[in-house]
Amino acid sequence: MEHLIDTRSFTIDEIEDLYLLAYKYKSGEYDRTLANKMIITIFFENSTRTRSSFEIAAKNLGANVVSLDIATSSSNKGETLYDTAANLDAMHPDAIIVRHKNAGVPSLLSKYVNCPILNAGDGAYAHPTQALLDMFTIREFLGDDLKGKKIAMVGDIKNSRVANSNIELLSRFGLDITLVAPPHFLPPHTTLKTSHDIKEVISDMDIVMSLRTQTERHTTQIYASLKDYGSDFCITKKLVADRDIILLHPGPVHRNIDIDDEMLADVRSKVLNQVSNGVFIRMAVLEMLINS
Ligand code: NCD
Q: Could you give the CA distance from residue 13 to residue 172 in angstroms, rounded to a whole number?
């Protein structure tokens, strides 16, 4: 049984196969290959785009989707995660998509169920479909061979599962990564290049990936206000000027803190392309894990 727990769950060859499938789906070539399959989504943490993206992906391929409403589910009544998993499994789903505020939950669940588990984000640990769709979007604009392409990841790297998954995936495909953040947002023992000043590094970059300040994971307030953070790290039109870069962000964007209005509307911003590509990537992941 194959699961998608983090980006390491897939080899480079599997990722290339996944992208071929996603390209095919993007060109409109797909049918109901998941008809009669039942997929459960269980989101213990808020989500707008990831959850709807998975649901649309599943429905595009003809699957039935049951979305468990956590506010009314039994985990609120003190049921252990193990029992929740055992009960879901007893309904014989073909896949379970899970998001949880604690790192490690998808991996734990995968030990108790008889269907693929797809991690839709766990704590600050991993968000594999996001990284897969991010790299797919980068390839769409910069070509398939990304070796040596330079990317700046800007923001709350330490608390970001998106950064974590992208660091693993993009390093494996040979990208040259620079982490750009204030000292307290950098992972403590990173071996990657780091900078505290986006202005100093932006001229070298092919790609800028802005990340949201993960205020829900901070135990103490670090910046006096998000506005202060934004004045140092916001990706503005003025900063980018006429540079030949593409700009990514996984959403939700803190407007004028992560990216300013003008830059978000600029053609070099690929934020909505990421959202569109996310559906095709999730279709391909579901097809691969359920039907092969
Ligand atoms: C991200 C997440 O939830 O990890 N959003 C997403 O899935 N598109 C990033 C974030 O919340 O900042």
A: 12
Cis preceding-peptide flag for 252 (omega within 30 of 0): yes
Q: Is there a contact between 32 and 290 (Cβ–Cβ < 8 Å)? A: no
Distance 90 CA to ligand 1 centre (A): 30
pLDDT digits (tens, 9 = 90+) for 143-164: 999 999 999 999 999 999 999 9
DSSP class of 34: T
Residue with CA closest to ligand 1 atom 7: 50
**How many whole angstroms from its chain centre is CA 283?**
15
Whole-number Å distance, alpha carbon 36 to ligand 1 midpoint, is 30
CA distance 272 to 225: 27
Q: What is the CB neighbour count within 10 angstroms for residue 152?
A: 23
The answer regarding whether domain 7-126+275-291 maps to CATH 3.40.50.1370 reads yes
